Amino acid sequence: MLTRREGIQAAALTALSYSRVLGANDRIPFALIGCGERGLYVAGIFQKTTQVDVRAVCDVFGDRTDKAVAQAAGAQPFTDHRRLLEMKGLEAVLIATPDHWHKAIAIDALNAGKDVYVEKPLTRLREEGPEIVRAARVNNRVCQVGMQQRSGDVYLEARERYVRSGLLGKISHVDCVWHGGANQALPTEPAQKPANLDWVRFLGALKYRDWNPAQYLDFRAFLDFGGGKLTDFGAHWLDVVHMFMASDAMPNDAPLSAVAAGGVYYDFHDGRTAPDTISALFEYPGGFTVSFISLAVDNGPEYHVEFLGSNGRLYINRNRYEFRAVEKGAEPVIQRFPGDITGQHVRNFLDCCRSRKLPNADVYIGHRAAQAALLANQSYLEKRRIRFDPQREEVLPFSA
Ligand SMILES: NC(=O)c1ccc[n+]([C@@H]2O[C@H](COP(=O)([O-])OP(=O)(O)OC[C@H]3O[C@@H](n4cnc5c(N)ncnc54)[C@H](O)[C@@H]3O)[C@@H](O)[C@H]2O)c1
Question: What does DSSP say about strands 277-284 and 288-294: parallel, antiparallel, or unpaired?
Fold first, then answer.
């Protein structure tokens, strides 16, 4: 268990504690670990800033490191992140492996003195969060979690204008929706494992099983590799709730209870374990509830978070917000923000590597978002409502 002090306040990163103070024009020696879809995309954003020098890339699949080297000419390829971390001079790493590897690689990188940008969800298991937070604090490293909403102007502006200003009034419910990604049969090819793919290393700490293309190509469909839609989509949206509902009096970054129901309703008979449809309800200490729903097919309302207040409703996604006052006839206020907010998040990380400040989606914030999502997964699996102590970070015994 982390106290709040350990979690946030004791986290002053100082330039003095950092052995290699970077100048404004120095390129940061950088590496990518996990060269799949997200890794290559975010590494490309890092490259576009011209603030990094990609010196190394790592993946368990040779085809993926080949692609990464094609994108970052001159980068040295690795299969094992521990060998990459031995490379002299690296300052920062981007971790974009599947979720079951986040903890081990993040801790190894932090212990090796690197600043870390690790994709969301920070963790696959609740107990992993405090361990990663501790590694970041003990080593005095910047650790940004890939929850880009924290740096997006659309979110920052809407929070100031409608929530912090009090304009929305009392917010008693937040509605989170993100559909899609689970309405297709899982891949069955390649039937033979590619020779240049280290399957055992891909499995890492998980129980050994023979090559399974579905598990390699769609880890999100299996609950031992990740947390399904609750952590894949839900961690993002729950973090938006935490971001908007935090106040000096109440962090509101962990629920008092979580309950979830759902299932594998599209029966593809392909062995998936993550529900394709899930519906979760959370109760927060600040006196509000949060719902999250995700259907298999993306044919419902578009992805969004909506804050329901006594004076109006604030609807928000990555590219726009809409405010509707409760008064009849009031014109809605709609603001659009084109472009991908990930660029703003990457820039915040790079700024913090230089300033040694805490990043917008600091590791503790990432831990709390994943924790909330994982509590709902526990409820789904155990078919019971989970009661939680946000301070002690403990599941409470059932009481009527
Ligand atoms: N922030 C966002 O909006 C966002 C969007 C998409 C994905 N993500 C996150 O990014 C991560 C990766 O997702 P993806 O869609 O790119 O998955 P992916 O399957 O396309 O890529 C994962 C890559 O990691 C590699 N890998 C697995 N174990 C490894 C290890 N031990 N060392 C090195 N490489 C290893 C795999 O071979 C693969 O190339 C996930 O955690 C996901 O949740 C975040």
Answer: antiparallel
Place of tokens 């299969």: 79
Q: Which CATH number fits domain 150-338+372-396: 3.30.360.10, 3.90.180.10, 3.40.630.30, 3.30.450.40?
A: 3.30.360.10
User: Given its phi and psi angles, is residue 276 left (phi above 0), alpha (psi -120 to 50 degrees) or beta?
Assistant: alpha
Give mean pLDDT in consecutive 10-residue pieces for the chain, a chain of 400 residues: 46 48 83 98 98 98 98 98 98 98 98 98 98 98 98 98 98 97 94 98 98 97 96 98 96 98 93 96 98 92 96 98 95 97 98 98 98 98 97 88
The pTM score is 0.96
What are the φ/ψ torsions at residue 107 (nearest 5 degrees)?
-65, -45
With a 6 Å cutoff on the Cβ, whether 59 touches ligand 1 is yes
82 Cβ neighbours under 8 A, 6+ residues apart? 108
Superfamily of domain 4-149+344-363: NAD(P)-binding Rossmann-like Domain (3.40.50.720)
Which tokens belong to 387?
């009661």
- Measured from the CB, is residue 98 less than 6 Å from ligand 1? yes
Helix (H) and strand (E) counts for the chain?
A: 13, 16
**Pocket residue to mutate for ligand 1, from 59, 63, 217, 223, most atoms within 8 A of Cβ:** 59
218 lines ligand 1 (CB under 6 A): no
**Contact, 333 vs 314, CB < 8 A?**
no
Instruction: Pinpoint the alpha helices (H) of 248-341.
Output: none
Q: Residue 137: CB within 6 Å of ligand 1?
A: no
Nearest residue by C-alpha to atom 32 in ligand 1? 59
Burial letters 125-138, b for 16+ CB under 10 A, else e: ebebbbbbbbbbbe
How many angstroms is it from 340 CA to the middle of ligand 1? 19
Q: In this structure, are residues 181 and 187 in contact, taking their beta carbons and an 8 Å threshold? A: no
